[in-house]
TrEMBL record:
Residues 250-328 are annotated as: Disordered. Residues 278-300 have a biased composition (Acidic residues). This is Non-structural maintenance of chromosomes element 1 homolog. It is found in: Nucleus. GO terms for molecular function: ubiquitin protein ligase activity; zinc ion binding. It comes from Cryptococcus amylolentus CBS 6039. The lineage of its organism: Eukaryota, Fungi, Dikarya, Basidiomycota, Agaricomycotina. It catalyses: S-ubiquitinyl-[E2 ubiquitin-conjugating enzyme]-L-cysteine + [acceptor protein]-L-lysine = [E2 ubiquitin-conjugating enzyme]-L-cysteine + N(6)-ubiquitinyl-[acceptor protein]-L-lysine. Belongs to the NSE1 family. One of its GO terms (cellular component) is Smc5-Smc6 complex.
Amino acid sequence: MTETTDLHRVLIQTFLARRFIKEKTLVELYKRAIAAVREDDPRFKGPYALNAPGVAEMAMDLSDMLHVASMEIAQARDQRTGDTSYILRNIDATEVAKLATDLNQQEVDFYRKLVEAIMISYPANSLANGQARSLVKDLEGTTKPPQSWAAKLLESLVSRGWISRSKRGRYSLSMRAIVELETYLKSEFPDYVHSCLRCKRLVFEGVACSKEECSAHYHAYCYAALNAMPNPKCQHAPCSASFRQYPPKPIGEQGVSTMEDSFSGGVKKRKRGRQTQGDDEAEEGEDEAEAESEEEEDSQTQDRKPGRDYVPGTQYEDDTQPSSSRRR
């Protein structure tokens, strides 16, 4: 095991403060850490190269040092762009509640409902804004928090990196959530978790092979690499279907129509197998009816001021307050 130096201590403190660091940023922070150590030891030389492979090696050594505290630094790639980042995660946590320790119990319950709804929304792997806010109705207790409470909590979860919000306004699991909740997701949602056949990492945004009986999934950037080959085909040996003959189907928010972005009803488990046209039409009719019902209920509660019949466990500070005073 690598001997722990002042450089490693500085870098560990950096990860504890940030938890999530992009690769390019980490290279720059590594340079600054070396400069800080040289203030006490002018002859100090950094043991790692000042590039991507160097910080990858550094992350492995830091992980070895952090294992005693049941933590590690994991490498992750953005689901859409493939950009690399490093995330400090708790390797003992198996529940959302243990990971989201900065949330109170009701907020944790909402986040758990949110994660479940996102997972069972496959192939969308995301929720419309209205669908996410409506999850307050699934919380336990006779008095439900208003959707304005959910809206503020969703904003807070986005700012703290627990979920992502796209330009379409849909919520999905963030890179941090995918890395930190990997064990939990595989345990609780085995039928909805897929690994990219090319890079073996979890995939929530990309494509899936469209040939019947094939379960192969690929990140968008992994599919792009395969598609650049002379004869692009599915890498699943029993399948090997040509991507030109069987164009892959999108997963993630690209897998659902923009019309669904305005849905405010509950989330139903989507059938994993192929559906007939009749099944699709029946489900669409049910979704429309449920959406109309939700809109009627929302209109009845819009004028209700939050706090009259419900007091949230956590009071969020106004956005005009200095960022240093906000809860992180």
